[in-house]
Amino acid sequence: MQKILAAFKLRDPGPAFGMLAGHAATHWMIGVFYILLPFIREEYQFTYLQIGWLLTSFEAGVLIFSLVSGPVVDMSGRRVVFQVCALAVGGLAMVAFSVAPNFLSFCFLAALVGGMTQFWHAPATAFLSFYYTSNWGYVVGLHGMGANIGEAIGPLVAGMVIASTTWQMGALVPAAASISAAIMLFIFLIPKDINKGEEQPRGMSFEQYLRGFVSLLRNFDVIILCCMMGMRSTAQLLIRTFVPLYMRDVMGAGASLIGTVYAVMHIGGMIANPIGGLASDNYGRKPILILALLAATAIILVMTFVGNEILFVIGIGFLGFTLYATRPVTQSWILDMVPQKLHATSVAVRSVIQSFFGLAAPPIGGWVADSYGLLMVFYGIAILLLMANVLTIFVPEYKKPPGAT
User: Fold this and answer.
1) Minimal CA–CA distance to 114: which of 273, 247, 237?
2) How many CA atoms are closer than 13 Å to the CA of 238, on its beta-carbon side?
3) Helix, strand, or coil here: 62?
4) E strand spans, 312-352
5) How far, in Å, CA of 168 to CA of 65, rounded?
6) Cβ neighbours around 239 below 10 Å, total
7) What does the DSSP assignment read for 9-52?
């Protein structure tokens, strides 16, 4: 028992919980973005295909800023300053989102919100791996838990605000949270963003970075793992998009119930993130990942037969637990594979590959929903998760870095 409790202890946990708070703010924006979609669709009479293109714009922003974030962090040696910028710009984009006049404006702002929330991840992962040299699965799990806190609280609050006012007011709350988090990180964490034994951060030269980047692209195991993560993240993207639409258009749910269901899914994820990370530290990445993906596939299929609202909410909670338990496992797995100096770049490579999967999926899902009904989209999600599990079989386990526990 003492060994288990010791695994949860961290040297100087303050920065880890600061990262958790900042991550919560970025995903607060993401969670509210998805909750707003059914109400934007109603007001502007968008088709499911147009909603799909909005999500493609979001993923395009993710892709563009994924290409930028890794090189910027690894070559500059700075981390927290970029996280502060991501939070501040993302918050301002949400303010503009509340007054967007037309479809093209929504697409541009969706790309900016997606890009800024993605830009957070490379410097955050680099900072955590630089500051904590062991228990990566647990530290990344804590960071991931912040995402689920944000995506649980955000939609819950947004649902209540939208139910009592308008969806535009619901968009302003995450903007305030994001800007507040940016100020907090600027004050408390920038002084800690200094490489050990040095007075100033030192990054890599472009030539060093380029050699490292090419080495990642030549690493077959890294690419296979990133493709598996792309399938898993695409399934998650489709769930985030079409569960609120299904509830609104098929079940006739109001904003408060939609927000509650979305919150339940991420509360399950909040619980699962540190558990999944710690379990993978102790029992290996592959077995935990395969088990979680199989469970998520089964839950998705069962939910297509559920008509009762209470059972639907329970099912969403279990889905969140199993699906989000995979996130710290995959993120820790890729950190096991690559040198520490390329951790930010590995996040960028991962995100680029994930974005290529995510760009096409939302419009295809929208077309399927327009043509064959929303239920068919969920069968497609189950197929994606099964394909991700097949790829997982081909990725070998890696030994933990020296000093990891």
Assistant:
1) 237
2) 32
3) helix
4) none
5) 26
6) 24
7) --SS-HHHHHHHHHHHHHHHHHHHHHHHHHHHHHHHT--HHHHH
Give the domain ranges of the chain: 14-194+205-392
Q: At what angle do helices 103-119 and 14-44 cross, to 10 degrees?
A: 170
Of 244, 251, 263, whose CA–CA distance to 39 is shortest? 244
pLDDT of the residue at 368: 93
Residue the block writes with tokens 């305030």: 176
Number of C-beta neighbours around residue 197 at 10 A: 5
Those residues of the chain that have pLDDT short of 70 are: 1-11, 74, 77, 133-137, 194-206, 208-209, 307, 344, 348, 398-405
pLDDT of 209 reads 66
Over residues 242-255, the pLDDT tens digits come to 888 988 888 888 88
**Structure-token pair, residue 193:** 């963003």
- The residue among 20, 24, 16 whose CA lies nearest residue 266 is 24
CA angle 187, 192, 194 (to 5 degrees): 130
pLDDT at 25: 92
For the record, the structure tokens of 65 come out as 């800023």
Positive/negative CA dihedral, 329, 332, 336, 337: positive
Q: Please give the pLDDT value at position 13.
A: 74
Place of tokens 């806190």: 149
Which pLDDT value is given to residue 98? 86
> pLDDT at position 290, please?
87
Q: What is the largest CA-CA distance in the chain?
A: 61
| pLDDT for 153 | 87
- Rounded Cα distance between 210 and 231, Å, is 27
Whole-model pTM: value is: 0.74
> Helices 343-372 & 121-131, crossing angle to 10 degrees?
140
Using only C-alpha atoms, the chain has a radius of gyration, in whole angstroms, of 20
- Residue 201 DSSP SS3: coil
Q: In this structure, are residues 66 and 348 in contact, taking their beta carbons and an 8 Å threshold? A: yes
* CA–CA distance, 303 with 115 (Å, rounded to integer): 32
Cα–Cα distance measured from residue 240 to residue 247, given in angstroms and rounded to the nearest whole number: 12
Fold of domain 14-194+205-392: Growth Hormone; Chain: A; (1.20.1250)
